[in-house]
Amino acid sequence: MTRKTNIEISREEDFTKILEIEEQYIQQICSDIIKLKPDLVITEKGISDLAQHYLMKANISCVRRVRKTDNNRIAR
């Protein structure tokens, strides 16, 4: 899932708040994945360092930047 948003930050507090929101969002997505109890997560895009950290703590391996054709083969 990719989300693109443009924002303008004028104060340091705003930047800090945005980072906190991003961290909470990543933690929630990782929690949802962890609940499914996979051994491996494969993605066609990158995985943030924070997400890798949460998944690694749950003993979930990550493979990132897999080509779409390879991903389709894996899904079969």
Structure commentary:
The chain has about 80 residues and is mainly alpha-helical. It is built from three helices and two strands. A two-stranded parallel sheet has the order 1-2. Strand 1, helix 2 (about 50-55) and strand 2 (about 60-65) form a beta-alpha-beta unit. Helix 1 (about 10-35) runs parallel beside helix 2 (about 50-55). The radius of gyration is 15 Å and the shape is globular. The chain starts with 11 loop residues before the first helix and ends with a helix.
In a few lines, what is going on in this structure?
This protein has helices at residues 12-35, 49-57, 68-75; strands at residues 40-42, 61-63.
SSE diagram, text form:
Blueprint (H helix, E strand, L loop, with lengths): L11 H24 L4 E3 L6 H9 L3 E3 L4 H8 L1
Parallel strand pairs: 1-2
Helix pairs in contact: 1-2
